[in-house]
Fold this sequence. Notes:
The chain has a single domain (4-297), classed as Methylamine Dehydrogenase, Chain H (7 Propeller). It is mainly beta. It contains no helices and 29 strands. It starts with a strand and ends with a strand.
Amino acid sequence: xxxxxxxxRDPMVETELIQRYGQAVxxxxxxxxxxxxxxxxxxxxxxxxxxxxxxxxxxxxxxxxIRPTQRIRGLAFSDDGNxxxxxxxxxxxxxxxxxxxxxxxxxxxxxxGFLVVSPVALDSxxxxxxxxxxxxxxxxxxxxxxxxxxxxxNDAPRMLRLLPNxxxxxxxxxxxxxxxxxTRATLNRRxxxxxxxxFDVSPTGIVIRRSLRSITVENMFDHSLVAKLAAPPGPxxxxxxxxxxxxxxxxxxTVTLGPPSNPDQKLDAGERIxxxxxxxxxxxxxxxxxxxxLLTVN
Length: 298
């Protein structure tokens, strides 16, 4: 493992290299106990603690029908950090983090018997795990893999987050919706004026979303506007601090962070940004780069 500090445009931004992988980092999940899961462009999921990789799981499929479009779509830990949930290729998988062994998995039936159905988003909160699929369905399970419900909706989210009260916020890029997972009822729906390309939500319901030209921060429940900012050129990656609602968003090779009204800190990573999330354990944002580096940004 390499440890080091990198120059950046603002001396107030502390940047630490906590790991280097051989492939682009495309997904990051963090656990309350300090565990970190990283999905790479090579379809590997790596679990690390205290800077050491403890195991690697290969998500690559041998099925010729799946291989052209397979990728890691989502990573999420259980609240206690003992289970990692992975959405990849055509299945959702629960992995015991102590051993790296699968606990349970779900593979949706193929449409018309031959069309592959793949997960597009996944999250976990409390005793619930939820995933959406590219056939318009949403499935929820408890932590043991027992299916709690399955439903189809025209607003099936391509990005989603579970809130602590068994509610789910998601967007299909064109609308912003709130669902009750237990009843599967749509509680709130609003058509968006501009297409959402990036999305994150705090446990308090503050949403940050990115369109082509703007970044909007708003309250999910009353739709009150918190802030609206110009979006820099770059990938549609946004994240929000789960405690203070501090935000971060990516440019091509930069990350801007700070309060929604004035995100005035900027990191120049010197490489294309490929993943971004907030880590409550680190109390920092984690930034994945196309050259395989994983950074913490305070």
